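pasting for ref
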Amino acid sequence: MKGLGALAAAALAAWTFLSPPSGGWAFAAAEAAFLAWLARELRRTQFDALQARAREPLDADEADLARRYPLYFARPAFARECASTLAATGLASLVLVPWLTYKLQWPPALLIGILLFAVGKLTKLLSPVYVLRVATAKGDREALRLLSAHDGAARKLSAHHGPEPEHHRPAGG
């Protein structure tokens, strides 16, 4: 997606500032659609399929980490892009809710504010390193255990299994 999700969130936020009645509903609808689609993608990612493609067997901590964050390990680039879009959506929501409230657009402001809770939850599922570092800084030993297992799990579950095999071309072609 190459940052297009964050750009779309910014464009919708700008539209909402310029035209609160229609922009507020457009932002809320786009946010709800994105969150529903992302939740479906999270449900579709299965830990068993992820574990089956591991290069080496996962130890208990690595398996626990991969079980909690399967999409992050199954499709890391996709998860990073979605986390970026969620961050942009969340920041825009934090600005738009007061703006829409000021402009007396209560229903879209309320909907965007409620959806902000889902944005926070999904961001935690797509950015485990950040979440675990924050929890570790607060003294959470469980988070420290999982954070220490991250590099091993990422190495074992990475989609890249070594150099790509060369394709042999027929002579003269």
